[in-house]
Specification:
GO terms for molecular function: DNA binding. Belongs to the DNA polymerase alpha subunit B family. Keywords: DNA replication, Nucleus, Signal. The chain is α+β, with helices and mostly antiparallel strands. The protein is about 15% helix and about 25% strand. The model is unreliable at about 80-100 (pLDDT under 50).
């Protein structure tokens, strides 16, 4: 973070005196329960803090949005900051006032060579359909909703069909009641594999992408999550990890099946200026871009078994052109920090059909950045 935003070395926390200085750290909660505006602290790296944390007084800040695990740079001073009188905070016998949190460290988008872009300039638009599980209603493992989606796509098959788990849902009533006679692996192989084959038969050019979910009871429930290992293989079938980043026609697409938007919404502390309306869903999606992470929340939600030794796999190598974020929150498709952020919703909601997403990327020069997306009801 300090390398990205400022070309100086962060000052030792113990040496913060009267002159304005800055330091870097991670937002934490200093009390029991959820983070609130009275319990926000910044934990700097051990080499500059000796294990001490800085309390962050946000009472005089007109607007902010913080959550546990958020990395940022703060400025601290014993003097009043420009624009008003700011109170001081006393922590561990030392006087600090933290009046600025800089949290934007987003990476650049992938730069493409002009000659490569010209290869796609005269082609038709790239059509991408995204659907997120559950793929069957709560009254049984019949997968009629997935069948309906495949039937809808028969008339105009997309170039890419992305199916995001859960496929054998841990939260499905039939699974939770343990009333199935087959193993979870057999359910996946016998009920999902034939439907994957049918999807591939829609077009000889269709590429099928499969992304697992932490709710897939037949798969490894660790995050980051490895891709499925078969049993069905095909030259136009790709099993991807959760999260993952890939490129199609010079368009970078980032995906995570974990409901990071919902988890952030429960932990975020937010304040806005009076009379100003903000886009909550866009703000939550923007946290991922600014923090360059598919899951910037720490500690994670209880349902997320975070493998800390592989936490580097959550980092975004670059800012995606398209960011797909399935969530139980309201579906949307909007431009966030020059990226197209999409929540396709769930294909099935209890006993009723849900939503899926169709994205069209025009085959023109990247500098125009034209992308369109729509969320449709199944």
């Amino acid at each position: 973070m300090s390398r990205c935003l400022i070309m100086q070395q962060p000052l030792l926390v113990l040496s913060l005196l009267k002159e304005p200085v800055w330091t870097v750290g991670r937002v934490c909660c200093c009390s029991e329960g959820r983070l609130n505006d009275k319990s926000i602290v910044l934990l700097p790296p051990l080499e500059i803090s000796n294990g001490r944390c800085l309390e962050l007084d946000v009472s005089k800040i007109p607007e902010f949005a913080v959550f546990p695990g958020q990395c940022g740079i703060i400025t601290s001073s014993q003097q009043s900051a420009p624009g008003g009188d700011l109170e001081k905070k006393v922590l561990f016998g030392r006087c600090y006032f933290l009046h600025l949190l800089c949290k934007d460290a987003r990476k650049q988008m992938l730069a493409s060579r002009v000659d490569k872009l010209r290869n796609y300039a005269d082609r038709k638009s790239l059509e991408l359909t995204v659907a997120c599980g559950p793929f069957t209603a709560s009254d049984g493992l019949f997968y009629k909703t997935l069948d309906a989606l495949i039937e809808v796509l028969t008339e105009e098959p997309p170039d890419i069909l992305m199916l995001i788990g859960p496929f054998v849902d841990l939260k499905h009533p039939v699974i939770q009641s343990c009333s199935v006679e087959k193993s979870f692996e057999e359910i996946y192989e016998n009920l999902l594999t034939p439907r994957f084959k049918k999807a591939l038969s829609l077009s000889e050019n269709l590429l099928l992408l499969i992304v697992p979910s932490l709710r897939d009871v037949h798969h490894d429930r660790i995050f980051p999550q490895p891709p499925f290992q078969g049993p069905f293989m095909h030259e136009r079938l790709r099993y991807l990890s959760n999260p993952c980043t890939f490129s199609v026609n010079e368009i970078v697409i980032g995906v995570t099946a974990t409901d990071v938007l919902f988890h952030l919404s429960k932990e975020e502390v937010f304040k806005q200026s009076e009379g100003v309306r903000t886009d909550r869903l866009g703000r939550l999606a923007n946290h991922l871009i600014e923090q360059r992470s598919f899951y910037p929340l720490y500690p994670p939600a209880m349902e997320v078994n975070l493998e800390t030794s592989r936490i580097d796999k959550l980092e975004m190598a670059c800012t995606p052109d398209i960011l797909i974020l399935p969530s139980d929150m309201k579906f949307f498709a909007k431009i966030v920090n020059d990226s197209l952020a999409v929540n396709p919703g769930r294909l099935t909601k209890a006993l009723s059909a849900g939503t899926y997403c169709q994205i069209s990327v025009a085959g023109i020069d990247r500098s125009h950045g034209v992308k369109s997306a729509g969320v449709l009801r199944c």
